[in-house]
Amino acid sequence: MTKPGTMFEVIGGFDSIDKLVTAFYKRVGNHPKLIPIFPDDLTETARKQRMFLTQFFGGPRLYSEERGHPMLRKRHLPFEITAERKDAWLECMNAALEEAEIEEPYKTAIFEKLTMTAHHMMNTP
C-alpha cells in the first residue's frame, strides 16, 4: 500500500525508481573505484536496490517482505566502504538522478537522504 504524498508517489512510483536504478548501475558497473566491491553481474543487486528504494521512499514494503529488515550497515560490512568509495557512489547516484529526470525539490531531498545513508555505510578508513 502506498501512502499519498510519499516521495515514492510524487516522483512517479515504480517507473521512476526503475529509471533511477538503471541509470545508477550503468555508472556503478563502469566506475573504477566501485567495480571491486560490486559483482560482475549487477542484475540481482539492481533488483534489490529497486525494492529497497521503493520502500525507502514510502512505497510498498517490498524489501522487508522479501528480505526482512534492511539492516543496511550490517549487510554492507563485508565490503570495504571508504570515504572515496562513498563519494564515488554518491557521484553515480547524483548523475543517475539527473538522467532519470527526478525533478526538484525531490531530487535534492532524495540526494540529501541518500548522502546521510552513504555516510552511515562507511566502514573502512
From TrEMBL:
Q: Which Gene3D superfamilies match?
A: Globins
Q: Which PROSITE patterns match?
A: GLOBIN_FAM_2
Organism of this sequence: Virgibacillus litoralis
Instruction: Provide the alphabetized UniProt keywords.
Output: Heme, Iron, Metal-binding, Transport
Q: Which cofactor does it need?
A: heme
- Which InterPro entries does this entry report, sorted A to Z? GlbO/GLB3-like, Globin-like_sf, Globin/Proto, Globin_bac-like_CS, Hemoglobin_trunc
Q: Give the Pfam families listed for this entry.
A: Bac_globin
Family recorded in the similarity comment = Belongs to the truncated hemoglobin family. Group II subfamily.
Organism taxonomic ancestry: Bacteria, Bacillati, Bacillota, Bacilli, Bacillales
Protein name per the record: Hemoglobin
